[in-house]
Amino acid sequence: MLGSHLSIAGGMVNALHEAKSLKFNTVQVFTKNQRQWKITPLKEADRKEWLAELKRLGWEDRTISHASYLANLGSPEPPLWKKSVAMMREEIERCHALSIPYLVFHPGAHKGAGDADEQAGMERIATAIVQLLDETSDCSTTLCLEDTAGSGTTLGRTFEQLAEIARLVEAKAGRGTRNRVGFCFDTCHALAAGYDLTTPAGAKSVFAAFDKACGLDRLRVLHLNDSKGALGSRIDRHEHIGEGAVGMAAFEFIMNHPHLEDVPKILETPKGETPKGTPWDTLNRRRLLRLVHGEGKPATHRPRKTAGAR
Ligand SMILES: [Zn+2]
Ligand SMILES: [Zn+2]
Question: Does the global pTM surpass 0.85?
Answer without folding.
Answer: yes
